[in-house]
Amino acid sequence: MNDAVIVRNLVKKYRTKKRTGLFRSYTEIIEALRGISFTVNYGEIVGLLGPNGAGKTTTIKILATLLLPDSGEAYVAGHNVVKEASKVRKKIGIMLTVEKGFYGKLTGRENLEYFAALYGLDRRKSRERIDYIIKLLELDKLGADYKLFEEFSLGMKARLSLARALLSNAPILLLDEPTLGLDPPSARKIRELVKDLAHREGKAILYTTHNMFEAELICDRILLINRGIIVAEGTPHELKMKIPKLRVVTISIRGEGNGIHQILHTLDAKYEIKAEENGIYSVRIHAEKPEDIFNDIMKKLIANKFEIISARIEEPTLEDVFIYFSEGSL
Ligand SMILES: Nc1ncnc2c1ncn2[C@@H]1O[C@H](COP(=O)(O)OP(=O)(O)O)[C@@H](O)[C@H]1O
Ligand SMILES: [Mg+2]
């Protein structure tokens, strides 16, 4: 099997007891994954992109053998995640959003030494590896050699979590929202590194995020996930081309406001108007061929004494694509 990760029809339901009274309760079943399928190749960053509750963490945990699926199959480096869990664990580095297991009273470096020993890595080699990784993530500059983990900023903690995921030099990385809530330099550092790990070192990376901008920035391929289902898949460009009708004219204007609806109403297109500050309105018009209506709109706006601050034709954003595939319309 060549693919680093293969997922077929994965289903996961959570069962939680809800109490409705002193002696009454019922079991609520949450379908976190409703049959998802995808693959990740070596040398590729695949983004699992979706809002909170979409099923991203559940997917990562199943692939990391931390959670059992209800049905379907998943293979990591050719090993079945249910039947060959210990083989799978040797092939993965994992980073979860909620970081557990680090020791507050140890320095960054000591924490890494502890985990290297726990993973049974060769002592001499692991010392070299830790030196290398600490430099790679610029943790030395941030004081990982003398600062205790409990004194770390969120950005440093995230860097250390990624460092831990890289300790064993595993060929497959499962990263669950690695930049969530981070300061911009740390987020950027992590993104740059993730790119290098895939494109230079050939690692297979599954990267979850709810940040459309970030997904577009670093992912080679994106899986849009919503309520446990993958609703669309492709490169960022391919995804946008799947909804060619949804190109957008974005206009920023200043004026009385009353006349905008009358003007836009005459168009055969969907539009949104948002009132900003100081009498400025931003308008988005969705059109199949925005070039055809652009001049017409401009003329009408000017004729109606609107001051045009900016106007341009935009490709749909990933957010547009997401809404289109999740809700069937904009
Ligand atoms: N341990 C759990 N028990 C019950 N429900 C859960 C549990 N973990 C996650 N869920 C539910 O499963 C769904 C998917 O969650 P999750 O995989 O964490 O989504 P994401 O990571 O995309 O935010 C959500 O509706 C969430 O509330
Ligand atoms: Mg999550």
Overview of this protein structure:
The protein has 330 residues and is α/β, with parallel strands linked by helices. It folds into 2 domains: 5-236, 3-Layer(aba) Sandwich (Rossmann fold); 244-327, Alpha-Beta Plaits, CATH 3.30.70.3100. It has 11 helices and 14 strands. It has helices at residues 56-63, 85-91, 108-118, 123-136, 154-166, 184-199, 212-218, 236-241, 258-265, 290-303, 318-327; strands at residues 5-19, 25-40, 45-49, 71-76, 79-80, 92-95, 172-176, 204-209, 221-226, 229-234, 247-254, 270-275, 280-287, 307-314. A 6-stranded mixed sheet has the order 6-7-8-3-9-10, sandwiched between helices. A 4-stranded antiparallel sheet has the order 2-1-4-5, covered by helices on one side. A 4-stranded antiparallel sheet has the order 12-13-11-14, covered by helices on one side. A hairpin with a 4-residue loop joins β12 (270-275) and β13. It is globular. The two termini are 40 Å apart. The mean pLDDT is 91. The structure holds adenosine-5'-diphosphate and magnesium ion. Magnesium ion (MG) binds next to α1.
Output the keywords.
binds magnesium ion; binds adenosine-5'-diphosphate; 2 domains; 35% helix; 14 strands; 330 residues; Alpha-Beta Plaits; globular; Rossmann fold; alpha/beta; six-stranded mixed beta sheet; four-stranded antiparallel beta sheet; 31% strand
Overview in brief:
Helices cover 35% and strands 31% of the residues.
SSE map:
Elements: E1 5-19, E2 25-40, E3 45-49, H1 56-63, E4 71-76, E5 79-80, H2 85-91, E6 92-95, H3 108-118, H4 123-136, H5 154-166, E7 172-176, H6 184-199, E8 204-209, H7 212-218, E9 221-226, E10 229-234, H8 236-241, E11 247-254, H9 258-265, E12 270-275, E13 280-287, H10 290-303, E14 307-314, H11 318-327
Parallel strand pairs: 3-8, 3-9, 6-7, 7-8
Antiparallel strand pairs: 1-2, 1-4, 4-5, 9-10, 11-13, 11-14, 12-13
